[in-house]
Design brief:
By secondary structure, this protein is mainly alpha-helical. The chain has 13 helices and no strands. Helices cover about 85% and strands about 0% of the residues. The radius of gyration is 24 Å and the shape is globular. It is found in: Membrane.
Length: about 350
């Protein structure tokens, strides 16, 4: 009995300490969100460009030259992307405010057709929506991209400077060459899977954005470039991103045309593009790349969205891939990896089958 009470007391103590540790980690994640988000994006960019530098090394390009060219390309790419997003958001804000009155008039005319009950409901709903406030908030958030890009570039530069010594540090930390090789192998698996996911997802998102851009251009609508960029960015958010992008595109069509019939036609085309890409090509190309549980993706999306906001929704899938692979290497955390994997096989490589 005493032994049983001792074991129970030890388990309760361990669980209590685990709850405290989780709460402390969650507090740090929220308080240091800006720095941690920039660090996460810096790690992803470093992972992608490391493969490019390795490819240059095989072409007999000096490592210092390849690293310098990579840093210059990253700096130009980050600053261009940040300024482009800010410019597009500002354009959307100014155009949406200009078309706000027209959208309200269209909704009022539609509500009159559906009766007084629908009219009152729509009036109440639209009255509670502060579109201008949301757009101004989005513009303020977009302006933070510049400072974030500078911090990300700084992180990436120091990562490149430490790149050569990383294997040596891992070996000295573990004190065992075999264990060091295992840790480095795990890191390389994470980088390979995340890189593959990002490359494939970028291709899918680019095709979707191009089709949406073509629809807007053929219809003679404004903001074709802005909505295409928005679609490309939001499609990196699993499930919810394509829905949000579709709704925003349809609202912009309604605000610009004021024609319900044309809005339904173009909205149907936009929805069809998102549906075909999201339900046919996306699972077909990404299913073998991720091997993640769909329910786990939704949970990861919800958790990181609450903790880190919009940036967390973009990082949810890469973080989940890393967590699954790391948990698979730790015996007492392996059940977590099995639950996060699609078929209960977290070690299975997308193209080479199950490793034994």
């Amino acid at each position: 009995m005493n032994s049983h009470d001792s074991q129970l007391s030890e388990r309760l103590r361990t669980g209590f300490l685990g709850v405290i540790a989780f709460g402390l980690i969650l507090f740090l994640l929220v308080q240091a969100r800006f720095i941690l988000i920039c660090l996460a994006f810096a790690i992803i960019i470093f992972s992608l460009t490391s493969d490019a530098i390795s490819a240059f090394a095989r072409l007999k390009v000096p490592n210092w030259l390849a690293t310098t060219l990579a840093l210059i390309a990253i700096a130009i790419g980050l600053l261009w992307a940040a300024t482009a997003v800010v410019a597009q958001v500002n354009e959307v804000v100014s155009t949406a405010i200009a078309y706000a009155d027209r959208a309200q008039a269209v909704l009022s005319s539609l509500s009159q057709r559906w009766g007084p009950g629908a009219q009152e409901a729509i009036a109440t709903f639209t009255g509670n929506i502060d579109v201008a406030g949301w757009l101004r908030s989005a513009a303020a958030q977009a302006s933070n991209l510049i400072s974030g890009s500078v911090l990300i570039l700084t992180f990436v530069g120091f990562m490149f400077s430490e790149r050569i010594w990383f294997p040596v540090k891992i070996e000295r930390l573990t004190g065992d060459p075999d264990r060091a090789r295992q840790v480095l192998g795990t890191v390389h698996v994470i980088m390979r899977r995340v890189n593959r996911y990002l490359v494939v997802k970028a291709g899918i998102s680019a095709v979707t954005a191009a089709l949406i851009w073509a629809i807007f251009r053929l219809a003679g609508l404004e903001l074709a470039g802005a909505i295409a960029m928005l679609t490309f960015i939001l499609n990196f958010i699993p499930t919810l991103g394509s829905i949000i992008a579709t709704v925003i595109a349809i609202v912009l069509v309604l605000a610009q045309t004021g024609d319900p019939t044309l809005t339904l036609t173009l909205g149907g085309l936009i929805t069809a593009v998102q549906f075909v890409v999201g339900n046919v090509f996306d699972p077909m190309l990404l299913g073998q790349t991720l091997r993640l549980s769909s329910f786990g993706i939704v949970l990861s999306l919800a958790f990181w969205g609450v903790v880190w906001g919009i940036a967390g929704t973009f990082l949810a899938v890469p973080i989940m891939v890393a967590v699954m692979i790391v948990c698979a290497q730790i015996p007492w955390l392996r059940p977590v990896a099995i639950l996060l994997s699609q078929e209960g096989l977290p070690e299975q490589e997308p193209s080479s089958g199950l490793r034994r």
